[in-house]
Amino acid sequence: MARTRSAKATRGKSSLQNERSDPDLDLISNLPVDAYNAILMCLPLRDAVRTSILSRKWRYRWASIPHLVFDGIKRCAIDLADIVNGVLLVHNGPVHKFVCSYYVKAPYHLDQWILFLSKNGIKQLTLGFLQHSYRVHSRLFSCQAPSDLHLTGCKINPPPAFEGFRGLRNLYLQRVCIANDELERLILKCPLLETLTLKNCYSRLIHFVINALNLRHLCLSGEFKDLQITNSPLLITAAIDLTRNIYGAEHLEQGGVCNLIKILGSLHHIEKLELQGYLLEFFSMGNVPDVLPTSFLHLKNLSMGICFNDRKVVLTALCMLRSSPNLEMLEFSVCGYGILEFQVIPNAGFWEAQEHLGCLLNHLRTVKMTGIMGDECELCFIRFLLANAPVLETMSTGKIVKKSRFLKDMLQLRRASTQAIIICD
Questions:
Q1: Fewest Cβ atoms nearer than 10 Å: which of 66, 187, 251, 291?
Q2: SS3 of 265, please?
């Protein structure tokens, strides 16, 4: 019996020594496929390729990872297109994520990549710094699975038979050339779209309509003559920045319903709103009401660019404040001098009239100001805020150009809040 046990122990020890001495048997060579992919997707693509030297079982594991990100590759003598082509040539299995934001000279490389990705279940696609003359291959619009699409610097022309991206949730277009009606059709045919970003797209967006039932986050920057947001009841954050040169005085129409109501009147569930640049100037066209027909009851964070030398712009800003009874944070920056043809500088009588109308800033706690020049019209607005914010905690001014007299006057203003602190840079 003792000999039997000793023999078994000897064989077990010998077997264990053989396993340890076998270079092909280690702790990472027999992992499940999902584990391999999870490890490789945590590495930059270049390091993932280098795992081929670990063992024979790791030699081509990287060739099946579903995420291909080329942004971390440094430019060298070898052209980036050759690197991407080499990876795609040996890749097997689906590609769910593909990122390449470098400038690629030859359009036919891009066409080949899109053809390859469209057949391999692409879900997240980022192509950037392309030639502006490059027209995205029509095969892209036959994909049914994408959830995220980021395109920069190219032309988009969806074919007439385009049925939409039924699973698309995030759409990002920057410096993209696309016709107005085609962009509207693209957005409309993405029923699950939640995040839309349009930055400096090369298109004459006249009477541009955003119709997205499930839209929750919107970011617009560029040239727009007219804008309408319809059928987006779930929108909770919006950042809009319109450049001024597209709507000079010749485009502005006086009278009638103001642009503020036309564009923002239906955003009943908005929680965070950024109105940058000269957007308030655009919103002020028409008859600005004292308060909007429907208040922004959920709005907590508001950012605006204000021209204090234009009476209509100031009225528009005050209308926004009166229509936001639950506002907690206000940020505003001073910009420009308004459109001279319609500019009327607010006077003392103007501000007295605003005080009589009242303002519901009962929840405002933080005010941040930038670009303050130190003019009297800015001081009047600050006086209005301090007098109508009973729970205000902090008001910060940033750098003030003409600060000596302005600071003294501002610190002497009456405050509705006993705990309000004014922080000056």
A1: 251
A2: coil
Nearest to 307 by CA among 348, 277, 327: 277
Alpha-carbon span 372 to 355, nearest angstrom: 22
Contact predicate 102/69, CB 8 Å: no
∠ CA 58-60-64, rounded to 5°: 110
Percent of the chain that is helix, strand, coil (3-state, to 5): 35, 20, 45
Q: Do the Cβ atoms of 410 and 384 come closer than 8 Å? A: no
| Per-residue three-class SS string for 157-222 | CCCCCCCCCCCCCEEEEECCECCHHHHHHHHHCCCCCCEEEEECCECCECCEEEECCCCCEEEEEE
Q: Above 80 in pLDDT, residue 276? A: yes
- Report CA 51 to chain centroid distance, whole Å: 35
207, 169, 205: which is closest to 187 by C-alpha?
Answer: 169
Neighbour tally for 89: CB within 10 Å = 9
Question: Quick one: how far is CA 165 from the chain centroid?
Answer: 20
b/e per residue 122-132 (b: at least 16 CB within 10 A): bbbbbbbebee
pTM recorded for the entire structure: 0.82
For residue range 375-388, list pLDDT tens digits in order: 888 888 998 899 88
DSSP code of residue 371 = S
What is the chain's alpha carbon radius of gyration, rounded to the nearest angstrom?
30
Burial class (CB in 10 A: 0-12, 13-18, 19+), 12: exposed
> Is residue 113 classed exposed, middle or buried when 0-12, 13-18 and 19+ CB atoms within 10 A define those classes?
buried
CA 20 to chain centre: 53
Q: State the Cα–Cα distance between residues 329 and 316, nearest whole angstrom.
A: 18
Calpha distance 225→243 (Å, rounded): 10
**Is the Cβ–Cβ distance between 324 and 294 less than 8 Å?**
no
Distance CA 366, CA 347 (A): 26
Give residue 228's pLDDT band: very low, low, confident or very high (50, 70, 90). confident
Distance, CA of 140 to CA of 268 (rounded, Å): 35
pLDDT digits (tens, 9 = 90+) for 82-100: 888 888 988 888 999 999 8
Sign, Cα dihedral of 115, 116, 121, 122: negative
Tokens of 37: 């992919």
Question: Is residue 65 a contact partner of residue 37, using CB atoms and an 8 Å limit?
Answer: yes
**HSE-up of 90 (CA within 13 Å, CB side)?**
12
